[in-house]
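Sample 1 of the test manifest.
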Amino acid sequence: MTRRGSGSHDGLFLRTLTALLLPPGFRAEYGEEIRRAAARRADSAPPGRRAGLWAREVVDLGRTGVREWGAVLFGGGRGARDGGHQGREHRMEGLMGDLRFALRGLARARAFTAVVVLTLALGIGANAAIFSVVDAVLLQDLPYEEPDRIVAAWQDVTRRGGPAREWFNVEDYADLVAEPNLLEAAAWWGGWGPTLTGEGAPEVVDAAIVSHEMLDGVLRTRPHLGRLFMAEDDVPGAPGVVVLSHASWQRRFGADPQIVGRTITLQGLPFSVVGVTPPGFQTPVAREAELWVAPGFQGEQGCGRGCFGIRVLGRLAPGVPLETAAERARALATRLEQAYPETNTDLSFNLVGLRADLTRDASRPLWVLLGSVAFVLLIACTNVASLVVTRTAARSGELAVRAALGAGRSRILRHLLAESTLLAAAGGAAGLLLAWWGTGALVSLAPDGVVPRLEGVGLDGRVVAFAAGLTLLTAFLFGALPAWHGARGGLRSGLQAGGRGGAGGGRQRGRSALVVGQVALALVLLTGAGLMLRSLQRLSDAELGFEPEGVLTFVVSLPSAPYADAPSRQQFYGALLEGIRALPGVEGAGAVNALPLAGEDSDSDFLVEGEAPPPPGVPQAAWVRPVTDGYFGAMGMERLAGRDFGPGDAAGAPLVVMVNQTLADRYYGGDAVGRRIGFGGPDNPNWRTIVGVVRDVRHFGLREGERPAAYFPYGQVAFGRMTVAVKSSGDPETLTASVRATLAGLDPALAATGITPLEDRVGRALAPDRFLGVLLAVFAATALVLAAVGLYGVVAYGVERRRREMGIRLALGADGSRLRGMVLGAGLRLTGVGVAVGVLGAWFASRALTSLLFEVAPSDPLTFAVTVLVLGTTAVLASWLPALRASRSDPAEVLRAE
Amino acid sequence: MGQDTGTVSEAVFHILLSLMDEPRHGYAILLEVEERTGGAVVLGSGTLYSALKRMRAAGWVEETPDPDPEDPRRRVYRLAPAGRDVVRAESLRLEALLRQARAKAALAGGGEEAL
């Protein structure tokens, strides 16, 4: 039978569960069979029943775990006759009895129950919430047929010092597609934002240009209406054809059943609608796209080998694993290097599984978060275990009496386990409620468009199963150890101590060890959060190279129909900017093709006059940025040398250019003004004189230093799609309406899109780091509070145990402050050991953050010092209260109580 | 197993019944039980293998040396003579129980429908 490709994570889930729940012997013998049967059953069920079946299997595994561990711990015990959960006849009564008894006991100890349930709910809820995000984003299958066969193909230029995921070009793509036994289907794509006219007010729509195999070949969808694309639609010069998404067909075209064959106008060009995709279908790339067009309408596609113009998805040939395919692609790239040395030297191909490709930036932060909440849960379990030990100790008299009356050790153990199971179940249920709320909060907190696939996040059967598994695990973690203690040690010491509720020193040592562990875990979390916050601060302080305050930005995309030539475009933008500058509250305005932090740009190779062209494979390219006059002023970009562009830098005038600091420093030794640069290739360099040098800007993100860039006067290089930046004297958003009106006054067929204050763009660039930093800080704070409570509990308990001794000491004239010091010292000794262990742990754990940190070392001494200080102060406070109580014991009262 | 007298659990009984017709692998037992009882009894995989382990230890079922032709990695179980005896004894016991219950119900005037 063919398992879905997803076997890996369902399998992982089951593997984890069986590893956690079943004793090793039984697991070795039957684990594999159990996992296979469970997965097979869930797979064969209709999707609606799957979650229920999973939940049932998880519960059943829990029961089996209890039974099998019981057999291991207490000997074979039961025979073959009641191997199953339906051995009700004589077992149910015992189990129900245990549960009833436990329920009564817990109802009596209300405060204890409330604290335990709340602590567990917090831990389980946070874990379930983060898991729901991890599951939806990283684990669940993409909604396509055999999604594990879909790959993204990239050009790998790491040997040139470039990225491993660079775009493709049509020429190399053709070779990749032609390679036998590699891809069954492949398609290339590019984003597009055309203006849709003739259907109400003009509007810019999200679209994508996709070659014909994308929809049916790679993604394997079928048309809901009409057809998808065909090979002839890709042929340069073919008539424009468009496929609508189901949602857009309904929303924009009223679900018109006659839509196929209609012609719509995009960017001033006619496109005939050939089909509609099924409901819910979306391409995994360009995920906002409302419609897809075939590339034929654009004319010639190739930009030549060595150019990076298209992005590629493919479907692996049947039976070819990703590693093999990647190997074949690399081998092909090596052959192309030899065949085309001048363009393909040091260029390789890189195939990445689509899911990994889509989630690459999100995966590490999410795993870090899941690891952190797991720590919080561990700390919570430790606190609860500590509480349960105390309670068991307090009840050792009762337990001893029950044992004396004939209750076997296993009976008492079962009773104690029943209690912890009930507590865990209540905690788990409350935790799911918290998770339900928390998931919503997480999704709304998550930065826009940075965490992919967020729309799938929610509480489903898998999250519930995860929470259920976690609940069982916590019941075991915080219940088993104390129960073992209670069933064994408690019996003897309980009676010996006359049922006074005293506890052996061994138990106190056990609790101390728990506290040391807690402090260590809390320190690790605090350090992680501290590092992320420091990094966030560094990022916020990063030199942008421009001043975002008060700047409003928006995109205008001129269709080729009335704006075919440069003069018409220059005239349009001249008029637009003039109109905007005349608006009240506007201090300046200008336009550029690609704004900093907008995530777009295009580059071009260049030559330095007087120097030989670089050898093949050595890149020498600069970002190409046409700017209108007023742009640098509106953006607050500082000019470091030379002059700004002026009205004289027009078509026909001497060709000029401004460069950024990086280009000037790297290629002209810092002295660029007056020298010349050519963007036209060796045969016709088209030399331009550098007239000025501008400060670098953070263009592709706050972390990335700028690469060489050149600014061209709009009078000489006129793009149709420009982003306008308007500097206002007040709140930039108040300008929105008047800017729109100015645009409509010039050309009613045009729409302004992406109207955003520039500060929002900067905020968005910080958002992923802020998301991670804030969540880590919340988890760390929770961990700190829990650890403080744990420490307080242990110290206070120690004081309680020695009250008699302290009372006598005080009566004999001991100094209260010395007693205080003694108690405080005990607390701080535990903290000290915990800190030592924690610093060591944090030293290793923070390595996982390395790639996420900006200008902060994972072993940043300041962060470590502050963390230790915060933890130390908290520890002093947590120990101070019981110390105070100890020194104030009234000797008479203590002795009376004896 | 000294205490092999008296009742067997429902799960164990269903597994034994399932193996009456022919040897089966674990997953096939799950399906057969579910199908035969019209979905009223759904065994969990953990329960199944935990029970099989005990039943093997008791000598009621044994593993066949022939692997499943469909998937050779999977183990196949068949009923041992001792298991057959258990089914027979348990059936007799249940029959007797049912007889007594029917008699009581009839005496109470409820007729068989009252069951």
